[in-house]
Design brief:
alpha/beta, Rossmann fold, 2 domains, 7-stranded parallel sheet, 6-stranded parallel sheet, 15 strands, globular, binds uridine-diphosphate-N-acetylglucosamine
């Protein structure tokens, strides 16, 4: 009998760390056939190829060449190419992670061909319609048949939007699975040494969001703020290609801040683990610093990951670079961070079991647990895998 075919579609850097644990757990269960498709949204080796070398992901079975462009161009190219591919492959399920343009394109192409869609990292909301990712998240969620969420707030958002509860499964954070699998090796690597930094003696920066870097005023102010931090503590900034282009266009040249090329996964994780604090506008880094217990200062007006503030180490500074100079005095707070529930290294396993169950590939043993929506007005039962899956018949 033909095994069910699951196609995972990735396109941009943060997708790889999210999909890898799910791919590898499904591979271990051995009950479905899998294909990895890369849209080519990210194509520079330094933000693409190096990640595949480090993660438990095969080289993509299909490599598309969507590349850069406006949102419409990039999404439309991916939509056309993915539709063609899905017609050829006829998958039973398409798995899409996160919120990038490739995510939406894959979800839409599959849904219109009546192929079931599984959204990994469903339900996150910044409630900020100026973020392209917010549209990608909402639209992807609403064409998905299986919505795998990382935290309870995501379940609540989906319920409020009218998503049927039986489609939603709280599995935890698969990107944290990848972090936990690599953190020991990352710390041993001591990547700070290669940049002549001391452990817990520097601030790490990552910035790439259009809301910040596409504004000449904001990127210039930000560099000024980082220079102020660097008067007190070294600052290292691995620069995303988009940010590098904008800095060059603005003629902004730092004196003290150390700009370096984007780093491979383990080296970047090493720098994160060794930092005194992190300044970012990335979603994933807010989550990673929460688990690592590193103070994180988010240069955005909002976050779609509120658990990193309520449980973790994240402070949302607002899109206010003038607040950057306060960071050196805020690096040594008492660490009371709590790792959010199910950010335990087993999210990929739970995701794989949920996928199997959707496809009817196996019947794992499950127990019902109650999840509260936090405001006491509505409770919902979610099922959590409790044991290894039953053998496939
Ligand atoms: C994308 C995602 C964002 C994610 C980020 C991670 C969307 C809407 N945005 O943003 O959510 O956090 O990836 O990095 O999908 N470029 C290169 N080389 C590359 C890729 C891009 O030089 O390999 C440059 C191009 O000038 C391009 C620009 O970066 O126009 C932006 O790339 P794009 O993929 O459109 O968005 P990101 O900013 O990377």
């Amino acid at each position: 009998m033909r095994r069910h075919l699951v196609v995972h579609v990735v396109g941009a850097r943060p997708n790889y760390m999210k999909v890898a644990p799910v791919y590898s757990e499904l591979e271990q269960l051995g009950t479905v056939e899998q294909r990895l498709v890369h849209t080519g949204q990210h194509y520079d080796p330094e933000i693409n190829d190096v990640f595949f070398a480090e993660l438990p992901l095969p080289k993509p079975h299909t490599q598309l060449t969507v590349g850069s462009g406006s949102h419409a161009e990039q999404t439309a190219r991916a939509l056309v190419e993915l539709e063609r591919l899905f017609i050829e492959l006829r998958p039973d399920l398409v798995v899409v992670p996160g919120d990038v343009n490739s995510t939406l394109a894959a979800a839409l192409a599959a849904a219109k061909l009546n192929i079931a869609v599984c959204h990994l990292e469903a339900g996150l909301r910044s409630f900020d319609p100026t973020m392209p990712e917010e549209h990608n998240r909402r639209l992807t969620d609403h064409v998905s048949s299986l919505l795998l969420t990382p935290s309870e707030d995501a379940n609540e958002n989906l319920i409020v939007e009218g998503v049927a509860p039986e489609k939603i499964e709280l599995v935890g954070n698969t990107m944290i699975d990848t972090l936990l699998a690599n953190v020991e090796a990352a710390i041993e690597l001591e990547a700070w040494r290669e940049f002549e930094l001391r452990r817990k003696g520097y601030v790490l920066v990552t910035l790439h969001r259009p809301a910040l870097v596409d504004s000449t005023h904001l990127i210039t102010e930000t560099l000024w703020g980082l220079e102020e931090i660097a008067r007190q503590i070294p600052v290292i900034f691995p620069v995303h290609p988009r940010t590098r282009a904008r800095l060059e266009a603005a003629g902004a040249v730092p004196e003290r801040v150390k700009l370096v090329a984007p780093l491979p996964y383990t080296r970047f994780l090493s720098l994160q683990a060794g930092a005194s604090g992190v300044v970012t506008d990335s979603g994933g880094i807010q989550e990673e610093t929460t688990v690592l217990g590193i103070p994180c200062f988010t240069l955005r007006d909002n976050t779609e990951r509120p658990v990193t503030v309520t449980h973790g180490t994240n402070v949302v500074l607002g899109l206010n670079p003038e607040r950057l100079p306060e960071i050196p005095s805020r690096l040594r707070w008492p660490r009371r961070n709590v790792v959010p529930p199910l950010w335990d290294g087993l999210a990929g396993r739970r995701a794989a079991l949920a996928i199997e169950e959707l496809l009817g590939a196996a019947q794992p043993k499950r127990v019902a647990v109650t999840a509260s929506n936090g405001n006491g007005t509505r409770n919902r039962a979610v099922s959590v895998p409790v044991a290894a899956p039953a053998p496939v018949g």
